[in-house]
């Protein structure tokens, strides 16, 4: 049996008739999915798009590249918890954050060093068991085995709330460690401060250098029990302390302290009830953090109830009927897609911008944490369907505000906490903005947006754009990853042209329509691969399409993946290969490639391989749908079954690669529904095949779009017929307006391929070179 068929059979074994039950989408979410393997998700508490992400950190001792596996602070296979910090990425391929770590300690001695996981009791770190751990959207709890403390976490939009239940009769303490950080290499903490205010509120700040330079963050902590005592220490110059710090020792008389290695002991005596700590953060100053505390009143239970209600509303937009594992995977994927971009402006609208100055968001909520190289593909298109127009407009207004604040005058590349990291390639804020406008999102200045898009595309000092504008491609002898940059710039340029056309700016539209064809300048028709060229026009030699080396011709991939990146004109790219049959043969060769003699262990982002298809990284994500463009949609249906069966599971290691701020998850949501946005900006979705029996999607304007799959089973894995609102559909793409209007997309599944549906040239998805008025 071919691999695709075996994988499809394995997947569809789960499609036995299992009753959906009374549980709602909220109950189906499992935040532990992705916390093992390479998923890099965290299990802690966060509100939808929340500014605070309170979660356990199991190990922060890693340095530089060794931090990769702990990018979210938590790994499911670690045996100990170091503490609970307030900020985390969900699924990033890079480490940072982990700000302001808190750890409850019970008893008379209080270690101020975390200790070694291999030496139980050597520090404030504690062992734990997954059997004593619970997670659901907006809530996390664990029992710390070494101290017997039951720790619970919840979060509002700008506050995190910790609740610690200490063993009876034991003194309650909390360690606050400002040294702890993800990506914790020497010298990361540039400065930090601590102080106790007159009302007992603990405030402070730190400035860090890491993935983002000179990042400033402030905090305020307020307990619901009086502070019985405290000690602040600066251990910057001291030999690492291996003993225990008792409550009677240390600098208890110091009300405030500054330095690069601050740690605090907070004493609360013997308590007859759980201790609650409310924590707020701000990029502005300590007083703003205090104000954020006041902006979300209520105790732990009140905040937890409000956040649960927010998640139930957010997740309730998608109601799925499917077997339990598939329901759990899809609900969790939707949950992961709604963690970022995260709120970053304070309750009063202020935030610290790209220029390190304080600004105010006037009439919108400023968001940050934009992993744009990943999320322009499916994450942002999904949010355009399931989030209110106001939220999507806020995303765009945040990007435009960052451009205004930027010393370089361009849109963000990979931004978090208002800081630019310059990570990855392309100017992919551009398709996010264009797709939003073309799909009807308003509430931002379209002319300003187009000007910002053009400014980013024309900025000569970024990523070889100067040479790209002159030569029509990025030369490899002047800029690394040149082949990837050429095709990604060309796609972004096409979306600029699309928006310019919509705004009636013919001059900009014509210029960027021409630039959108620049992918041809790096495509080698003789080998059938995208290749890097030198400034003199020659292709770089020697050429190995399987080679993956960071900083070489391609970005986190090789010629096999990147040669398919012409989402706006797949028909023209297929013509370069020799036509549809040649394209299908090459697609098959990619999926069926024998990797047994290849070693990609040096490339940490390369995960989830099916031949040379790499689902664990984004450049491959649209590729399985390209059989539809080539007139063989049943091959897409086979490949999608192969991918879903092998790359997703309802287990901690259930993501084959980094979730990348929701992109891996958004791919699954779309694919489970039966369609995918291959070319954001085209206002079309390519129809694949469904993986759920029924799904009801409540759209941003309240319309409901229902997907039904009649006869879906292990045997019936092919699409035999498709109807839209009761009328037969002879094409395998959907227009955005058809989904936005609401209605029903119904699939009739069968055991054998339908080799005529959607195969005619005029029934295929959008390609620029053959675009014609759609009927």
Automatic annotation (TrEMBL):
Residues 1-22 form the signal peptide. GO terms for molecular function: hydrolase activity. SUPFAM superfamilies: Six-hairpin glycosidases. Residues 29-282 form the Glycosyl hydrolase family 92 N-terminal domain. It comes from the Bacteria. Residues 289-750 form the Glycosyl hydrolase family domain. InterPro entries: 6-hairpin_glycosidase_sf, GH-type_carb-bd, GH92_a_mannosidase_put, GH92_N, Glyco_hydro_92, PNGase. Keywords: Hydrolase, Signal. Pfam families: Glyco_hydro_92, Glyco_hydro_92N. This is Glycoside hydrolase family 92 protein.
